[in-house]
Design brief:
406 residues; alpha+beta; Rossmann fold; ten-stranded mixed sheet; eight-stranded antiparallel sheet; 10 helices; 23% helix; binds S-adenosylmethionine
Amino acid sequence: MPSDRPSSVESPDRLRDAMVAELRERGAIRSSEIAAAFGTVPREKFAPEVPVSAVYSTRDTVVTRRNAAGKATSSISAPWLQAEMLETACLRPGMRVLEIGSGGYNAALIAELVGPDGLVISVDIDPFVTGRAILAETGYPQVKVVLGDAEHAADELGPFDVILVTIGAWDCPWGHLLAPGGRMIVPLRFCGLTRSFTFVRDGGHFAGLDPTVCGFIPIQGAGAHQEHVAAVAGGTVNLLIDAGPALDAAALDRALDGDRTERWTGVTVGYDDPFDTLHLWIAARTETFGVIWADPQRGSDRMEPAMRWFTPALITPDSFAYLTMGPEQQDAESGERRYELGVHGHCRHGDALARQLADEVATWDEKWREHPGPDFTLYPIEPTAPVPTIGRVFPKRHTQLVMAWT
Ligand SMILES: C[S@@+](CC[C@H](N)C(=O)[O-])C[C@H]1O[C@@H](n2cnc3c(N)ncnc32)[C@H](O)[C@@H]1O
């Protein structure tokens, strides 16, 4: 007898169609070519160990490999981010593409877009990842998978029309592999933040277009970068700063038991308001800028960061101040939910840091909140890049990222 009950096993085809429709609706997919690629490649085949409904969530990353400590070392990125990166790459039939960080699914999407006359080379450092034969099984044998450290592995293989980096890179040593007029999509980490940039050549440097907020698994191998991290509050919260003197985790942890400075700024944000330019503004103003990560599974009652991830903070070896949010307020007229931004400061310099952080929040709100955000330019490491009037230079091993507020 036929049953009206929905099947407990969802059809991958239906889930794929729903994913494409949702990505179109939220603007991540804008072109018919990208829609066709996402509608064709069987995403579930690249993560056979994961329930099919989870594989097709548009917002979620699918972890495909962890190290001995349980940390994710390989994943299929969230569909919305893959779509955004592929849209900005402007891939056309016949192009030569280098994908850095492999896994198969994204390379298959690229192969759909560049067609049989194109070339896709996908480099990964992990033999487990390069050894999986899923691309051949799913019908993409034209993707060439290369085992090696992306720092050098593609040196002999360029030039490429598009270089698409799918790891959290701290530097960008791939500019010399880009063909004239090419595009390089790179999730680049600086001062604890990651933005996916579309780099296009502009004379001797690269303009960094469309900085998109994202998170990626950090790069391993020669390009890895060690940030300073201090775990506090019983390991539930990490304070992170890119460089400078090492953090005294024990002193920072003890500071939580001492007096706390609390300041309220009068600046409010709505429930869905993006305020990622606030992070960039504060980062431009002080080298003590860092971020706070709270463990999503184990909240701490000793700290109240504004967000679980990437809460802006000012951090010195033994003191810190961070952004917090007040209780929900409802706008009397519109009914909109809003939250006041505040600052908590701890330890010897906590009060001064809290004052500084609160002042920067107020300046951003007054002068820069409606501004589209800073310009980014990537220069080679030599000669010294121009220092912006308002902004900051982030020196790396091969390049310097310049953030300029104009
Ligand atoms: C987010 S996954 C790549 C996702 C993939 N492009 C997809 O289809 O969605 C990042 C990959 O980068 C690899 N990786 C990390 N450091 C690397 C390096 N230095 N060179 C090459 N691959 C690296 C990891 O092994 C991991 O498989």
